[in-house]
Automatic annotation (TrEMBL):
Gene3D superfamilies in alphabetical order: 3.40.630.30
Transmembrane segments: none
Protein origin, superkingdom: Bacteria
SUPFAM superfamilies, A to Z: Acyl-CoA N-acyltransferases (Nat) (SSF55729)
InterPro entries per UniProt: Acyl_CoA_acyltransferase, GNAT_dom
Biological source species: Halodesulfovibrio spirochaetisodalis
PROSITE patterns: GNAT (PS51186)
Domain annotation N-acetyltransferase: ranges: 4-154
Protein name (record): N-acetyltransferase domain-containing protein
GO molecular function, one term: acyltransferase activity, transferring groups other than amino-acyl groups
Amino acid sequence: MMNISIRKTEHSDLSEIMRVEEEAFGYNKEAELVKDLLNDPTAEPRLSLLAFDGDEAVGHILFTSVMIGDTKIKASILAPLAVVPKAQSQGIGGKLIQEGLKRLQKEGVSIVFVLGHPGYYPKYGFAPVYPRAIDAPYPIPEKHRDAWMMQVLDNTNPATISGTVVVSDILNQPEHWRE
């Protein structure tokens, strides 16, 4: 039985975060993305959490700040979520998502976006953004439009919002918005 604990990351956790990301994705592109996002001032405020099984880091999630057009709505994007292979399919990703959303809600964040698997994220309250008029930073092909999802954490009415989501400089690269 795994004994999972989750805590906010510290600067000294970078090597553990990188290891989790590399193991989870099988290459270092996501790890480099995370390192860059952690150093990108346009990504602030951000929330970075590590999940531990005992004292071993087994999962990581990162939320970074975004803007929706010219609105003043506090919003974030979840990117990426990583769980090491040996700890996958045990609910750790879900625990990281739930803990992150709870903390963001306490910080007054209204909406969280994710570009992710439409079979996974709806289990944690995310729903496709379409047909609402909130566009991803880059066009999402129609066959993948259900992968552009959002979750409202307060009483904000998404039907009243329109605009393009403006992400941090590091995430604002077309390669992060392709399949």
